[in-house]
Design brief:
Blueprint: H1 2-139, E1 153-155, E2 162-165, E3 170-173, H2 184-194
Antiparallel strand pairs: 1-2, 2-3
Length: 206
């Protein structure tokens, strides 16, 4: 009887120990399950946060891509406008260059014509002055400005127009009209006379 009672006590002790172990396992399982649920919740939160970040990144990337497309379109439009403006300016410059070349050609032609006309006028003027000079030289002895007796004057023509043989002097006379000047040969003769470098030479021929 005592052995049976001891056996029951041992079984009761094992039952209590088993029950306590079972309670410990259940509590440990619940604790682990709580931690697992907490980790799952944390992972879900992280997953949602990552999804939000990916969504934000995708939205931001799309916005930046859209802005870049707009900027590229704006730059392309500005470039086309600038190219058109450059073409118009180039066309205008070529037109102006053509006009300037035409005006230059016309000006050069007019200048050549004017130059030829002036040369012709100067030539005619010089010719007229020469003729007037000859006429003046011929008529000089009969003019009031001529201070010598025409009968005592001899016409030479070159290099001096007249030489006058008066009773008191022999005079070389050069007739000039308008603004005409003595040439170098005539100035030299004038200087010789003024310096008394006038000689007499008698040549006899047998």
């Amino acid at each position: 009887m005592a052995f049976y009672s001891l056996k029951i006590e041992i079984i009761g002790i094992f039952f209590i120990i088993g029950t306590l172990f079972l309670l410990y396992c259940i509590q440990h399982y619940r604790k682990n399950n709580f931690f697992l649920k907490s980790n799952v919740a944390s992972l879900d939160a992280q997953k949602k946060d990552l999804e939000n970040q990916l969504t934000n990144l995708s939205t931001s990337s799309q916005q930046r891509e859209s802005q870049l497309h707009k900027n590229i379109s704006t730059l392309q439009y500005s470039l086309r406008e600038e190219q058109e403006a450059i073409k118009l300016r180039d066309k205008d410059l070529k037109l102006r260059e053509t006009q300037l070349q035409t005006n230059l050609s016309e000006t050069q032609k007019n200048l050549e014509e004017e130059t030829q006309s002036r040369k012709k006028v100067l030539s005619q003027k010089k010719s007229s002055e020469v003729r007037l000079g000859h006429i003046a030289e011929t008529l000089a002895p009969f003019l009031d400005q001529f201070d010598f007796d025409p009968e005592n004057c001899t016409f030479l023509g070159k290099p001096i127009d007249y030489i006058s043989f008066d009773d008191d002097a022999v005079t070389l006379i050069e007739i000039k009209s308008g603004k005409s000047q003595l040439n170098s040969k005539q100035r030299h003769i004038r200087d010789l006379v003024k310096n008394n470098q006038v000689n007499w030479k008698e040549i006899r021929i047998q």
